[in-house]
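Hey, resending since the last one bounced:
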Amino acid sequence: MIRIERLKKNYGAITALDGIDLHVPAGELFAYLGPNGAGKTTTIRILTGLTRRSAGDAWLNGFHIEKEGLKAKKRFGLVMQSINLDQELTVSENLDIHGRLFGMSTSERRRKIDQMLAYVDLIDRKKSLVKQLSGGMKRRLTIARAMVHSPEILFLDEPTVGLDAAIRRRIWALIKEIQKKGTTIFLTTHYIEEAEFLADRVAFLDKGRIVVIDKPRSLMARTGTWAIDQMDKGNMKTVYFRTRQEADAFVTGQKESYTLRRVNLEDSFLSLTGKKVKC
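The structure tokens again:
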């Protein structure tokens, strides 16, 4: 559904993407992880026609993103980091404008607007002005808007940024329901637990290059099962172990404070790149 080959993007002397190769099959929820400046948003901007590539190629459901740009754009919905709704229009009017832009008929727009608002639990706010909604409601509305024209691909660029834990989990449930209906989802996030819970596969991106692609569970298994975070001369050091017994043996007699926990996906990224996802 998404095919990327040798994709590059340069901003003057700065290389944002350095030859990305990536295939995402239909129906997969794919997470694209990396620190700030790694190239995550640049990749989405190129795939959605907001930024032009410097080299390489990409296709959305077989349509080239530039040579067949209009056909490619009809295949996806996009939820950006920022809330880019029209605050002075109603919930329904925001979705109606989106449907008009995609050439939907009046009857089709009305049907899909009600369907999507019910889906994201906002049907009772249909006539409310957007500026009257909470942050979580606005985020759900941006997802509903992206889905009005029934796209085959949904791009989610930091979809839960700035939301509290309870609202984030509500959005997660919504995203999984969208995937169950067959939509291919391409997700970027700084919330590592978000990728662990949602993704079928993840890619670790660093300095414009993909370091590794695998299932979250497989990546964590490569790193270990247990982790010990320990203070070492004023710095935090993390050591990984295959078994709880190995971890217990390591801390026996230790005088420095430590925390024993399960390995997470960020540990895998850190062990491969020496960096944290949240940078």
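The first strand starts at residue 2 and ends at 11.

Sorry for the duplicate.
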